[in-house]
Amino acid sequence: MMEIYNNKIKKKIMFNKDSDYYFIAYNSILILDSLGCYEGEKNFYDYRKLIYILPFISSQFMLMNSIKTSKIRQEQIKILEDTYINSKLREPILKSILFTLEKRGYLILEKNESRKCIDVRLLPNSIPQDYLKSDLFKIESDNIKLLKKHYQRLNFISFDTLIEKLFKEKGVIIWDV
Fold first, then answer.
1. C-alpha–C-alpha distance, residues 153 and 172, integer Å
2. How far apart (Å, rounded) are the C-alpha atoms in residues 109 and 44?
3. How far is CA 104 from each of CA 11, 101, 107, 111, 126, rounded to the nearest angstrom?
4. Is residue 53 within 8 Å of 66, Cβ to Cβ?
5. Are 118 and 111 in contact (CB under 8 A)?
6. Which residue has the higher pLDDT, 65 or 155?
7. How far is Cα 101 from Cα 29, in angstroms, rounded to an integer?
8. With 80 as the cut, is the pLDDT of residue 5 above it?
9. What residues does 109 pair with on adjacent strands?
């Protein structure tokens, strides 16, 4: 019953969940927390990975397709292609959200000279624990745990490796620019 209630609340606050700023913000924070990416602990290398991970933690269907070891059907490849394209288009939205969260004191963005990317990490005690452990985000939290189990070192792997694992290895043709 609680899960149905939580989903109704989330549906009220979301218009198009994939481009809803709140949806992107709270799921990005959940991912960073779940991976232990805090100031003084470890970085999440290349913030852009977050926007590609979001669809997999917000949809059980997407997550199950990503962890499948068997060949996936053409319809599933098409869904992954659409997910990749939509995520690519949302990179500027994520960047804007992260800059806002940094300005408000929730996280730190830091240029990584060696990897030529921008790393991100949460500031300790900036996010209330009751928010991070809320039942409202149980589905996403459970999906993050499952994703972490199948794709280890999500915070360390390069952007290209993440794209390779989530999309290319599943049959999605990506034109690198």
1. 22
2. 10
3. 26, 5, 8, 19, 10
4. no
5. yes
6. 155
7. 10
8. no
9. 120
